[in-house]
Specification:
alpha+beta
């Protein structure tokens, strides 16, 4: 007895013989190309094993004792823009933390006027002004994502710039609406390396200022803006890394899913690790305050100050604080988090 598949093969063979005898060329359908596993705005990252952090750098970057392992994932090719965030707000009516008064139970010592909506803004010092550490950051009433530097500023001509003045909760709300998530620190760092191993920057071991939107000159008194931007830049204006990702260096710091603690001892040897427990967070500079990891540096990072525009570099930030130089990008699908 012949099997059905045998009949199929016999028919195909007969057709081929007939066609050849008639001088007909048979065009077999080409195999369908593999579907891109990521949404168009995201790039596929292959995953793999690597030691998160960097040896011999800043103490808080201490390299993990054992490699972490990442499954393949998708990550935004750029930061989320003002245009995209505006679409989210229009669809949901969402109000960011900067658009709401400071909670009286959290700030009982402040008056109603002092608790009015606002956020933290970079203000360059005036010529000859005495410089104190962090004196260039000011609380500005009325500063929010639509008005990044406060009243009088606007995003009307910055719709394709990364959204800023967003807290961790704001970024997470957008991610949930988009069906995505914030990247873990391990995901973010692996993606920022662009496939390079043991290199200081996303492109190699030598700092090249024209490859990213950072501060040119002596911070905070002189910014020559040789890269064309004294503040944020439209996303995608600088060359991509090896994975096709842009602005992983500079432009704006980016929120991650991890709580902050110095080093990576809690993550070593894990699969798809995320430090998800706020009780595990610690920052020696501000004991007792749980903070989140931000990555990538910003347009305010310079060789003489900050210089945390390396994949392994990291900083701690209060999750309820939006500033004029912190944004975010997304990953898909969301990870299952570990404590």
């Amino acid at each position: 007895m012949h099997r059905p598949e045998d009949w199929g093969l016999a028919v195909l063979a007969a057709l081929l013989i007939l066609a050849l005898g008639m001088g007909v060329v048979l065009l077999w359908p080409a195999p369908a190309p593999a579907a891109d596993p990521c949404p168009p705005s995201m790039a596929p990252i292959p995953g793999g094993r690597y030691r998160i952090g960097a040896a011999g750098r800043l103490p808080e970057e201490a390299e993990s004792e054992a490699p972490v392992r990442l499954q393949p994932f998708c990550i935004g090719r750029t930061e989320v823009t003002n245009r995209a965030f505006a679409a989210f707000v229009a669809a949901t009516g969402y109000r960011t933390q900067a658009e709401q008064p400071l909670p009286p139970e959290q700030f009982p010592e402040l008056s109603d006027a002092e608790r009015r909506p606002g956020s933290v803004v970079f203000r360059p010092p005036s010529p000859g002004e005495p410089l104190a550490e962090l004196s260039w950051w000011q609380w500005v009433p009325g500063a929010d994502w639509r008005h990044p530097e406060g009243p009088g500023s606007s995003i009307d001509d910055r719709l394709d710039h990364p959204v800023v003045q967003v807290s961790l909760a704001d970024a997470e709300a957008y991610a949930a609406w988009a069906g995505a998530a914030l990247p873990s620190e391990a995901q973010w760092e692996f993606a920022a390396r662009g496939g390079l191993r043991d290199r200081a920057f996303s492109w190699g071991n030598t700092w090249r200022p024209g490859l990213a939107n950072t501060w040119q000159g002596e911070f905070p008194v002189s910014n020559t803006a040789d890269d064309g931007f004294s503040g944020t830049a439209p996303v995608g204006r600088f060359p991509p890394n090896g994975y096709g990702l842009q602005d992983m260096t500079g432009n704006v710091w980016e929120w991650t899913a991890d709580w902050y603690r110095p080093g990576h001892d809690r993550l070593a040897g894990q699969d798809d690790p995320v430090l998800a427990d706020p009780a595990a967070s610690s920052d020696p500079r501000e004991p007792g305050v749980a903070k989140h990891v931000i990555k990538g540096g910003s347009f305010l990072c310079a060789p003489n100050y900050c210089s945390r525009y390396r994949p392994a570099a990291r900083e701690a930030e209060s999750p309820d604080t939006g500033t004029s130089h912190i944004g975010f990008r997304l990953v898909f699908p969301a990870l299952t988090t570990h404590g």
